[in-house]
């Protein structure tokens, strides 16, 4: 695959892992890194990956946030461009046609938390710490945190996290639904790899349709979302995976999906 200095993209079967690789900066996101992630997502999609894992290099951080040394002296137009880049990456993660799993292996602050929020599933190591910490920098979340966080954890908790810049540990994040599960730090990689492999083994078109329909629940009215679901559901009939899945069920055997 393509060569980048601040990220890596590795495939193992139908699972692709995108690693932010700036451990000396706690994997902070500068422009170069965001642009690399943007490009890598296109590569992963073109390769037809069945599931994508997003994580950070090293033992200390998933992504500790945006690069503060870069942001410090930005003008308003420059900040707008930076925000648009961050939004483009987060939106591309959210709309990626295969499930995206965040393997949160340490600090996930600010923009790092926002990238995790854009993923479909979040698995945290037991020593992970998560927060929208921008308020203490004199700013607010700018890559989707004010919109995705309340939909995930509810309005009250989202306001507390954003207003106070609170950092919560993995167990609290799990209790509040910010992550789906917590595993031991030394088991995170293997657990997420197994989870991603299970997802990649599911029927591709149905999984993509399921993700698309679920995303609509946060973007439109229920009535419009239900219409969208009906179209996606009926469109799967006649595909190999639909025919094979139902035949396998009736034959009492394991399906052989494409």
Which residues form runs of ≥5 with pLDDT under 50?
A: none
Tally of strands: 10
Order of helices and strands: EEHEEHHEEHEEHHEHEHHHH
Radius of gyration: 19 Å
Distance between the termini: 23 Å
| Alpha-beta classification | alpha/beta
Helix fraction by DSSP (H/I, runs of at least 4): 40-55%
Strand neighbour order, sheet with most strands: 1-2-3-5-7-10
Arithmetic mean pLDDT: 94
Number of helices: 11
Biggest sheet record:
6 strands, mixed
- Assess the beta-strand content as a share of residues: 15-25%
Label the overall shape.
Answer: globular
Record keyword descriptors for this entry.
258 residues; alpha/beta; six-stranded mixed beta sheet; four-stranded mixed beta sheet; 11 helices; globular
